[in-house]
Amino acid sequence: MAVLAISCYVTVVSCAEESSEHLTLLPPIDWKLFAKDLVKPLIYHRDFRLVFLSRFLFQLGIATVNQFLQYWIGDCVETNLPSDQAVSMALVPLLILAPIASIFIPQKRRKVVVYISAGIMITTCLLLEIATAFYMALVIGALFGVGYGPFVAAEFAMLMDVLPSAAEAAKDIALWHSAMVLPQIFATPSAGWLLDYYQKVGHSMNPPAQCLGYKVTFGLCIVYFLLGVEVTRRITKVE
């Protein structure tokens, strides 16, 4: 909070502001035209639309894993550590390996990078279905980081390959970025409902099915990743 406040203060006092009197002469914003112009690249540019959809689907899975990994460790992993400490330790390999792995992606063959990254993240979800030991949580965190880092780098490179217009690149990149924000709004509530519902179903079974809700939730992530791979395969301007 303090860092944000200091940064805002420095920006306000150090940046000279131009006169805004000329803005009163501008016509009012046509919001209908504005909205239509904003989404026009998605309507008229097939590859940009597919890259947007691919990011949306992958981010549904990534956001779900990131959000519920900590709860999975607390509910399904056998450890003597306090839950908050166990979660922190399991996330360290992910945070370290994700940026390191992204350094080694090739300059071309972006689709291949996405396919391999998706395969690694799907493998991570399969391990989340069966793992109960804490050392496996460390392996899963590391493995997910190895898949996530290169995927993010290749994903942005694909975007740059299919941008509809260099003159409106900033607007198009902002539109594409919403495909990361929107999944975080939808993924967590829907996955949370599935988790709660199937946890109750698992507890009511005889014998009880341990962590059934988490298995269903991470199984859904596999579906997201497979759909993302299929959409990526259909992009024509990217190798």
Structural class: mainly alpha
Q: How would you state the average pLDDT, rounded?
A: 83
Radius of gyration: 22 Å
Give the total of beta strands.
0
Low-confidence stretches: none
Helix content: over 70%
Q: What's the main sheet like?
A: none
Distance between the termini: 43 Å
Please state the overall shape, judged from the principal axes of the Cα atoms.
globular
Strand fraction = under 5%
List keywords for this structure.
8 helices, mainly alpha, 239 residues
General description of the model:
This protein is mainly alpha-helical. The protein has eight helices and no strands. The protein has helices at 2-14, 31-44, 46-76, 83-102, 110-130, 134-162, 169-204, 212-233. The chain is globular. The protein starts with a helix and ends in a 6-residue tail after the last helix. The model has no long low-confidence stretch (mean pLDDT 83).
Summarize the structure.
The chain has 239 residues and is an all-alpha fold. The chain has helices spanning 2-14, 31-44, 46-76, 83-102, 110-130, 134-162, 169-204, 212-233. Helix 3 (46-76) runs antiparallel to helix 8 (212-233).
